[in-house]
Structures are given as structure tokens and as C-alpha cells.
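Recap slide: Methylsterol monooxygenase 1-like isoform X1, sequence and predicted structure.
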Amino acid sequence: MKDRRVSDWLLLRKLKVSLSSVHSLNQSGRRLCPRTSIFFLPQPISARPQSSHVVSSCLSQWSYVKFFNIKSVCSASAGRRRASHSNSFGAAMEVNGTANILSSAYLAVEYVDSFLPGNPLQEPLKHAWNHMLQNYSKFQIATWGSLIVHELIYFLFCLPGFIFQFLPFMQKYKIQPDKPETWEKQWKCFKMLLFNHFCIQLPLICGTYYFTEFFSIPYDWASMPRWPFILAQCFGCAVIEDTWHYFLHRALHHRRIYKYIHKVHHDFTAPFGMQAEYAHPAETLILGAGFFIGIMVFCNHMILLWAWVAFRLLETIDVHSGYDIPLNPLHLIPFYAGARFHDFHHMNFVGNYGSTFTWWDRLFNTDSQFMKHYSQHKAVKSD
């Protein structure tokens, strides 16, 4: 069985390589726009006796295969792919080879997806999603739906950290136990959050509908990618956002501008979950821009925008929680920073500039003070 799976993967790779060498032609034989490659096959692959079961399951009922260079959807359950793409980025992607990287990544995810079980919540989710589409317009879904998703998820994820302060047995996991939360600090934070959410972020959310219309991003259930692809796309968005956050966050710590913008976020040297989006309005715009870059690259369905909102809020509230809880499932993410890593940034003010991952801090040695502090902490704890 293992040998057959390996051969299936090799066949998918060979199929991709062989098709990528074919010129893009339309049905009349004229070359298509270079940003999109459409390769016609004489018959569905599933009809070929030499094709493997993985290829046929992924590409059955097809007379052609599309490989898109920037945004694509691979839906194994529907047996088809569809895509939306950006005019300005497409040609550049063809030149620098990023298209090959992305298509290879999607093939890898598709291969893994072929072994995963179906989503048991698929039918209830389908019913709820179709009910939403039937009763609300795209503008209402994109605008008010996105606002509701953001507010519910944000304060829902903040709730455990808020409860922890009243549980004595949880205090052993608090990273800075000598600096407990106070009602005064939390009320101050809550008032700033309301201003940022409704005066800064809401106007940005109002542009969601026009963004989806401009890039022809679908809302329908049939176009929705399966959950492994959503997770992979969220990871890609996190990599892009983390890169943007590291360099812009580090720039905001420059002594000439720190006191004007980023100092607001450092009002609390011992962070707590609700403080994740407590920031100067300018910082909300500057660092928040990294959130939208990944969406512009990967978004191929409205569900991805909401999934990425949920993932990003979960991550940022976790690293600001102030509690280093064992068995945290987010620690399974490779190079994940975590609460202790970012808590040190608030306590020390220097270093640990990454939002989600540790690799940029490790590469530029901006985590050296933290590594020294953490080694001392482990030594004291072991004694």
C-alpha cells in the first residue's frame, strides 16, 4: 500500500511537470494570457487505464487541468479546481518561479488530503452556509458578517485568560505572577479596544465586499475548499504576516518614533489576552496591513478570510495571554513563538519582534537576551 502511495505521488509530480511544458492554448489554438496556464487533455484522466486512484480521484470528470500561479482552489470532494488571480502579480510570478512553488505546495496538500477522513460537520455547516446565502446579501455577509465574526471570536478567545485570574491553581502558569491583572487596567484596555474595533477596523472591514467583488472571490458552497487547504492557506498567510510584522514592529521600536506610536501597546509590561489589539490607531493600520497581504495572495473563497481572522486572533491572544499553559496545541506549530516568548518582549522592550514564529529573531539574533533569560529560568526551575 505504501509503495502504491509513493508511486501515486510520483505520478502526480510527473503529470505536473509534463503539463507545465505545454503551451497555453484555447480551444481555437490561440495562446492564452501568460498569467494563466490551461492544459487540455484528450480525455478525462480517470478514463486512462494507467492512471492511479489518487489522480483519478483528484482529476476525474475533467477534460483539462488548470495550474494557477497565485491563487487556486483544490477541492478533492468536488473533483475540480477553480481560481481567481491578480492581473498585476501574475506575470511576475511566471518569471520568478513562485508559481511552481505554490502549485507544488498545493499538490502536496492535495496528496495529504487524499488520506484524511471527511469532515463530520460538513453537512450541518453546508446547511448553515446555504441558509446564510439565501437570507443575506454578499455585502451583508462580507461587512456585518465579518464584524460579528471578529468580535465574537476575539472576546471568546479572551474569555479563558479573563477567567484564569480568578483561579488560584492557574497562577502557577502565569509568567509574571508578581504583576496581576487589575480592573483598572482591563477597563482601560476595553475602552481602547472599542475605539479601535469600531473606528479603525470597521471602516477597513467595510471594504471587504469590494475586495471580494474586485477579485471575483466566490461565496457559494460548491466553491469552498476542504479544510486541509484552508489550514495550509492560513499557514501561508501567517508566514507572510509574521515577516511583515517582524520588520515593521522592529522599526516601530526605533528610539526616534517609539514614544509616538508603539509605546501605547507597551503600557502593560505584563500582557493579558484582551490587550492583544490594544495599540495606537497608527500601529493598528501599520502592523495590520500584514494581515491583508496574505489574503491578497491566497484568498480564493470568503471562508478563508474568516478562517484567517480566527487563526490570527487565536495566535495573538495566546501570545499576549500571560500564561504559559502546558499541552497548548498551538505549540505543535513548527517554530511557534508562544506566550513566554512574547511576554519577554513586553517585559524587556527589546528583542522578540516576531508575531507568530521565531525564525526571524533567530536569524537576526534579536532573541539573544530572551535565550539567556530563558536558560536561567530553566536552571532555577530545575533546582
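The CA atoms of residues 39 and 209 lie 32 Å apart.
The chain has a mean pLDDT of 78.
(End of recap.)
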